[in-house]
Amino acid sequence: MRWGLVGSCVGVLCLGAGCGSESAPTPTATATAQPATTASATTSAAPEATATGSAEPLKSVTADPSRLKIEGKAVQGGLLRAKLDDAKTRKITFPGHRVIISPEGEFWIAFFRNAPPKGEKITVVFPDGQILERAFAVDGRTFEKEKIDGLPESFVKMDPKTKVEHAKIHARIDQVRMGYDKTLHCQGDWAWPTKGKITSRYGYERTLNGTDGGIHWGVDIAAPVGAPVKAPCAGKVVAIEKDVPLAGHTLILDHGQGLTSTFIHLSAFTAKVGDMVKTGDVIAAVGNTGRSTGPHLDWRMNLFEVRVDPELLVPPMP
Questions:
Q1: Alpha helix (H) residue ranges in the chain
Q2: Of 5, 129, 159, 284, which one is least surrounded by beta carbons within 10 A?
């Protein structure tokens, strides 16, 4: 996998409350090794991950750090790939999101945009009673501010009817994001879903017509209507929604273990719900649906409720 940060510019944008103002909670979650259709923000561990039925309590022994391997760098908005030497852990705790362990012991770790530099610690209790703790020093980032004036009022505020429809559809979308496939579909490097000029980035604080526009959670890529949108990594298409208020045509791709990519403002869909796709497969087309200032793709990523920065996973835009 490739990691890194690149520069910034402003241009074609996703606008409106549904495009950039969603907030991210910070619950403390425990691991599960069992598949489920949907998941709540805070979930108890699966039976084999929390079993305490041994005749005698196991002694607390510090585990060898090599039993947990982590790939990547801890940074605000970042995503790490981790692997345990034993998938049948008794318990895992990590502040911020659930941990879904594959049969091979693999799982994701993500950090909120405002993750503190210290205090993010993962604790693993192995079947033999050994305990491993890993504290992360999370690199901070400086997020730019976007000030955009002269927009139609409808681009900044939702009317009552749109608010109701927006809440209804986004509750459905959030439920999809809280579900997961235990299989890790994405095994290789990440690729850009489309090519073009980056016009807005993850984490930007927006002011629209002088009012708070919230945080922009995706990467906006200017491209012509009809340009192909490709899977940035392997996954399963789990949702397709047309005419979502503010976001327009929307597709969600599940990469496995709670990690999803969301593509909005689309003009058409090539894939359908249930399709398994490989990196580079065409799944949709760039559009200008919803509230946007021009044709572009807004690519977002979630590890459950944690908003992840997709740009940290891909090489610089060609």
A1: 17-20, 47-50, 160-178
A2: 159
Burial class (CB within 10 angstroms; exposed 0-12, middle 13-18, buried 19+) of 266: buried
Tally of CA atoms within 13 A in the half-sphere of 149 that contains its CB: 1
- Complete domains list, the chain, with CATH: 17-25+141-312 (2.70.70.10), 28-136 (no CATH)
Cβ neighbours of residue 183 closer than 8 Å, sequence gap 6 or more: 102, 256, 257
- β partners of residue 180: 36
Residue 316 identity (one-letter amino acid)? P
**pLDDT tens track, the chain, 318 positions:** 333 222 223 334 554 334 543 433 333 333 433 333 222 233 333 323 333 333 344 456 899 999 999 999 999 999 999 999 988 888 999 987 899 998 889 999 999 999 999 879 999 999 999 999 999 999 999 998 877 776 667 677 777 888 888 888 889 998 999 988 888 999 889 999 999 999 999 998 877 777 766 788 999 999 999 999 999 999 999 999 999 988 999 999 999 999 999 999 999 999 999 999 999 999 999 999 998 889 999 999 999 999 999 999 999 998
**Could you count the other beta carbons within 10 Å of the beta carbon of residue 153?**
9
User: Can you tell me whether residue 65 is helix, strand or coil?
Assistant: helix
Query: Is the separation of the CB atoms in 307 and 301 below 8 Å?
Result: yes
DSSP 155: G
Q: Supply the DSSP string of 243-304, one letter for each residue.
A: EETTTEEEEEEEEETTEEEEEEEEEEESS-TT-EE-TT-EEEEEB--SSBSSSEEEEEEEET
DSSP symbol at 44: P
Structure tokens at 100: 């879904």
